[in-house]
Amino acid sequence: MPSWLIKQLMHAFYTKDRRQILLLNHCWFHYRLNHGNS
Question: Which NCBIfam families has this protein been placed in (predicted)?
Fold first, then answer.
């Protein structure tokens, strides 16, 4: 997982921003589809 995504997710969980967490999960899903499973 890219460091920028980890940082964004940690901030979203810290602020309990459910919409942001869902958006970032969606981004991570598409990132993995396009860049393999590593």
Answer: spore_CmpA (NF033225)
